[in-house]
Amino acid sequence: MELILILIIAMVGITLLYQRSNGEKTYHLHKQEKFAGEIKNLQVESTSVDVEVVKVDREGWSVTLSGTIYEKDKEHFTLSHDRQGGNLTLRVNEEKTRFGIQMRKNMKLFIEVPAETLGSFMIETSSADIDVEGLRINHSTLTSSSGDVTMADVVQENLQIQTSSGDVLLKRVQSGNSDIHTSSGELFGEKFNYGTGVFGSSSGEIRIQAAKMLGDVRASTSSGDIRLFYEEEPASCKLDYLSNSGEAEINWTCLDYEVKKDNEVRGTKADGEYHLTAETSSGDLKVG
User: In this protein, which residues make up the domain named DUF4097 (predicted)?
Assistant: First the structure.
């Protein structure tokens, strides 16, 4: 306990010393790049700076890195790019200060994309949030270690999201194939028409609301619940649920049950066109 207290006091002292060495002066960082011509494939690499991507109704791309930092740290943040034909790679590099401490506020990489369809779209961050809105994409891959991932009004053929401890929030998102996993975060889908879906969470809840079932679904959690809701009940489906200690609540009509227990359910409706497989260690399943 004494050691922890000493470490806290030392960190506070270093922070105050660093502030004094900077004269407590702040600097508004604003670096911008513009790109003309067609860009079909986008890749973004960022450490701990949030990334926001939006569609705009104009020609040309605009990329802006902005936020407030200590004045002496203004050279520690760099925005670089590599463009080869229709391929654009953006990188935000963040160097450590001499004390390993940085003051920053509202740091963000803001990307404005013209109203067109992208081929491939990849974003990778360490501890930052990812926010995407209004795009049409063929293949999306979003990866964050401890940041949240938010998508709204996005249409794509293939969607892949991986987070370690961040939540995933999808609103009015459409995909032909979806593969989403989070270690300790939660997955929420509102009007999320995922096509064929594979969803996994170690300790978070999976809750998805879709218009209707359009493909096979596989969902698994360790200690979180799985909740799947459809505006239109499937006419032909198969359901398999297995849990160590969870319970199932199935609100679909006309299921022919082979097994119906608290922690195990197997049932088929009509020809069983689409297959829902759910597995939890201690979480419940609710389907409606």
Answer: 39-287
Instruction: With residue 139 as reference, give the H or E element that holds it.
Output: strand 136-144
Nearest CA to 140 out of 104, 99, 210, 194 is that of 194
Q: What is the pTM of this model?
A: 0.87
Question: Which residues have CB under 8 Å from 162's CB, separation 6+?
Answer: 142, 143, 144, 180, 181, 182
Domain boundaries, the chain: 167-288
pLDDT digits (tens, 9 = 90+) for 58-70: 889 999 998 887 7
Cβ of 244: how many Cβ atoms within 10 Å?
A: 11
Residue 178: count other Cβ atoms within 10 Å of its Cβ: 26
Average pLDDT estimate for 272-280: 95
∠160-165-167 over CA atoms, to 5°? Answer: 60
Residue reference for tokens 């974003």:
123
Q: What is the pLDDT of residues 245-266, one digit of tens each?
A: 889 999 999 999 998 888 899 9
Q: Is 275 helix (H, G, I), strand (E, B) or coil?
A: strand
Query: What pLDDT sits at residue 165?
Result: 87
CA distance 192 to 245: 28
Please list, residue by residue across 255-270, b when 16 or more beta carbons sit within 10 angstroms of its beta carbon and e when fewer do.
beeeeeeebebbbbbe
Separation CA 175–CA 193 (nearest Å)? 6
Instruction: Check if the beta carbon of residue 64 is closer than 8 Å to that of residue 32.
Output: yes
Cross-strand bridge partners of residue 62: 34, 112
Q: Residue 253 CA to chain centroid, in angstroms? A: 34
* Strand partners for 34: 62
What is the C-alpha to C-alpha distance for residues 230 and 262, in angstroms, rounded to an integer? 22
Q: Is 72 helix (H, G, I), strand (E, B) or coil?
A: helix
pLDDT in tens, 28-62: 878 899 999 899 999 999 988 999 999 999 889 99
How far, in Å, CA of 279 to CA of 225, rounded? 10
